[in-house]
Structure formats: structure tokens, C-alpha cells
Amino acid sequence: MTSTPSSNLHSLAQALVCLGLCTPLLAQAETNSEPEDLPALSAASEQASVVGVSSGGYMATQLAVAWPERFSGLGVLAAGPWSCAQGSLSLALNQCMMTRRGVPSLDELEARRQRYIELEQVGSAEALSQLRAYLWHGEEDEVVEPTLGDLLAEQWQQWLASPDQLRVARSENAGHGWPIRLPSEAAPGPQEWGDCRQGGGSFLLSCDDDIAGEMLDWLYPERAASDAGEPSNEPEGEQGGELVAFDQSEFAVKGLADTGYVFIPEGCDAGECPVTLALHGCQMNAEAIGDTFIRYTGLNAWAAAHQQIVLYPQAESSMANPQGCWDWWGFAESTWQLSPQHDTRSGTQISALLAMLDRLQAAPEQAD
């Protein structure tokens, strides 16, 4: 799997959530042009969701807690409790991946959230209580200990208005990553697919489980499949829609790559389709594994069948963030801040992600 992380910065390159082997970058040649602006699609302002794996799971929770009124659902795979790192790399490594310094205190984290509520830096308890949440963790996860996933579930049990809004899923023999059902033409390979316990090069785990479909079915219980039919296991982005590269530079903040991707099902360019933000884990961006996460998680297949836009923002690798993680410990905030605001409405990456959602939900004439 991956080596045991140490508490120094050098270990970040080996330890920070979802390590993988590099494969070619998703070619811009597929679009035969430079990426254009993210389109304004008049997407539905209701029923947006955010899902993520590992560092993307931590960021998904941060986004949902900061702006719960903008979302109806949250999906988290292989991550721990909200604000676990509290702006500290040391805590991120030693208490939010491994628990060598003990497990994080949920009481302490809740006190942090209450302070944020008083300062209007996160959403209200009432708005948060209305979400639906789907949480998954592999019992054989050696990167983010399953105990941390249990603590995340405990947080949401406290926050949600009813236990009927929460589904907690565990896979007994699964490791760290995103379980998938392999497409029919694909064979498992060490550079691309992992087996169910080991992440391979992409940390997409060939467990023969459609976790994406199960998760989105839970987050959208009222949605019926459109005329596109039921999801298949064929290559995604090639069925019932278009995968488009877009220029992320207008949303530029520390840690974001130049190019992002959006899957637009047939008919969704006419407006009123909801949006799912899908956040990759560390070393799962296009820079590291090409289009593997963007095409093969199962999200696009469900989206094509249910008229759902899927936004794939991209983080980038840097000296401060060598594995291309989302900012769940504060690296993207000002270096002089003693208490980074990465997990609040003021967080730079949270603000950029919300601006992307705003763009998709804007009417075309409002894009300028």
C-alpha cells in the first residue's frame, strides 16, 4: 500500500491521502482546442451535491458545513471527521490519517464549529440538519484508519435532523480508495486499477461494486432515471453526454490546476439539471492518473441516466502540496495565519469551488 507516514514534511510525498503512480495527463487534444470557460448552463439551484474521496472527502465535508444551504446531499469516501486537522499538518498526519497521537476529540471539533457559527463563517445548524449524507469506508484502509470514518459518521448523526438522512456503508475487504465496477473492456492492471484491497496506480478499487450509483441513489431517492436508461459499465463520458475540459484560471487560487472537467449529459445544456461536485483524492487528479477518475468512478453513468451534471475540479501538485491534495489542513491559506480559514466560508479553495457551482447555475446571458 503506502509507507507509514512520519511527522515531517518529506513524508507528505508518501503519506498524504491517496498516493498513486503517474500516468499520462488527459490530453487536451481530445477537445481539439484549448479549454474554454466553464459554461453557464442554468443548472438547477436546488439539489446540488458534493462528493469526494480521501482528501476530496475531507474537502467535501468542509464545503457542505460551510455552505449547507447550497447543497441537498454529501457523499464521503475514505475520510475522517470535519476539520480534523484544525489547520495543522502534524495533526493531519498523526491524528487524521493514523491515530498515533490518539483520535481527534469530537467535542473540540464541535466547539470549533460553534465558534464558526457565531462568526457566520459556516452555515447554520438548521441548514446543515436538512442534508442527506452517504459515508463509506473500507475496513482494510491502511491510509485513513476506519476509526476516523466512524467519527465522521458520529458527527453527522449529531448534526442531521433524522437518522433516516444518513447512510453509513462499510466494505469488509476493501482498502483505501473508490470502489468501482470495471468497464467491460477493461482488465485490472497495476498501473491503473487497484484490486479491492490495494489502490494500484489510481486508487480506483476493482471491487465489483457500484459505490457511485449506490451513493447517488441514496442522495437522490426521488429521482427517476431519464430516457437515457439505467447506468451501464461502459466507458463514461462516451455515453449519453459530453466530457468537457474548461479553463480553471478564472477561479485561480493556491492549489488549483489550470484545467478542470465537467460532464454534461444530453439535454442538460438546456438548463435545470442539478450539479454534483466530484472531488478527487491526492494523486487522483488528471496530472497524476489522466482521465481515470474522471471517466471510471461510476458517476457519469448515473448522471447520464438521471440528467445530472458532474463537475470535476482539479487540484495541482506543488512544493506545499506535492501530491495534488485538496486543502483540508490549511496549506492554501496565507502563510502568516496562525489559524487558517480553509474550513470556513473564507477558505480560498472553498470560495473557488462555490464560484464554479455559481457559474454552472447561472443563465447563459449572466455568464459575462
TrEMBL record:
<keyword id="KW-0378">Hydrolase</keyword>
<dbReference type="InterPro" id="IPR050955">
    <property type="entry name" value="Plant_Biomass_Hydrol_Est"/>
</dbReference>
<dbReference type="GO" id="GO:0016787">
    <property type="term" value="F:hydrolase activity"/>
</dbReference>
<feature type="signal peptide">
    <location>
        <begin position="1"/>
        <end position="29"/>
    </location>
</feature>
<dbReference type="InterPro" id="IPR029058">
    <property type="entry name" value="AB_hydrolase_fold"/>
</dbReference>
<protein>
    <submittedName>
        <fullName>Poly(3-hydroxybutyrate) depolymerase</fullName>
    </submittedName>
</protein>
<keyword id="KW-0732">Signal</keyword>
